[in-house]
Amino acid sequence: MFNHARTLLLNISGSNNPGSSYLGEELVPADYATIALPSYIENVRRSLFGADPDRAMLNYRIRQLLTLIAGTDLQEYITDLDSRITYTLGKDKTLAEHEMWSPVLSQYGGTSDDIATVGGVSERPDFTGKMFYQFNIDILSSAVIQVSRQTPPLKSQNLDLALTNGLSAPYDLYYTGHTLRVNTTNPGAAWTVSGYLRPQLSLADIVSQLGSAGDDVLTELFGTKRIEPWNTFRNTWYDHPELPYRLGGLVLALIYRTNIAGGKS
Predict the structure, then answer these.
(1) What domain range includes position 180?
(2) Residues whose CB is less than 8 angstroms from the CB of residue 134 and which lie 6 or more positions away in sequence, other chains included
(3) Bridge-partner residues for 227, per DSSP?
(4) Residue 155: helix, strand or coil by DSSP?
(5) Which of 11, 77, 170, 218 has the fewest CB atoms within 10 Å, i.e. is most exposed?
(6) What tens digit of pLDDT does each residue of 117-152 get?
């Protein structure tokens, strides 16, 4: 297997492989099967990754979290599960300067005179967990344009099309903060719009969210038996003055609980 700690945090079947060009993608063993998680683990994951995270959000946050842990002496608990580090740490070009932080517009129908433009300001994906988006825009007739979101949450609408001073009204690109305008009513003109919404919450913000997860959730996460490694995970979360240790202790508890949920001791 490839680094087991990262694989457990991702917790997506190894048969579901988007390819190495996907944002933040790392190696996952082909035979890894998604582990069904108890509700308290899911509650913790929602604070870390959002309500229903896509793979891009998981990759992005996991990079942040594992980089954080690698800067502490808690790293030994990562390598205790698997000594091989097969993932990238730190801020790299893929995540820090990814070209798709801005919407990418591609035309697949019509002529070069048919032009679409995208505006607006990106929404934050931290609470939904949906970073990646893709839309198809199709002019169905001289009076109707279709805006269809291709990624969850799916949504498609046929909308009135008319030009004022050579430009349409702005059409909402659902759940992204962006809008699209066209300069044409030519049936057959069509475009795709795709990109990633960049997370806005800091790791300190996430620690604050986790602190309000509830005593019952955190008790189940850390357990009640005063044994290792749970003592270390619990103590660093509750008592350590430094954020990397606090968050690192909680994330390690999440990893180890996921491992147990998968039938490992």
Answers:
(1) 100-196
(2) 149, 150, 151, 192, 193, 194
(3) none
(4) strand
(5) 170
(6) 999 999 999 999 999 999 999 999 999 999 999 999
Residue 124 tokens read as 């934050």
Q: Which residues pair with 116 in a beta bridge?
A: 182
CB-count burial class (<10 Å; 0-12, 13-18, 19+) for 12: middle
User: Which amino acid, 248?
Assistant: G
Judged against a pLDDT cut of 80, whether residue 62 lies above it is answered with yes
Q: How many domains does the chain have?
A: 2
Spell out the SS3 assignment of 92-134: CHHHHCCHHHCCEEEEEECCCCCCEEEEECCCCCCCCCCCEEE
**Same structural domain for residues 110 and 181?**
yes
| Alpha carbons 76 and 90: distance in angstroms, whole number | 18
pTM of the full predicted structure?
0.89
**Distance from C-alpha of 162 to C-alpha of 135, rounded to nearest angstrom:** 20
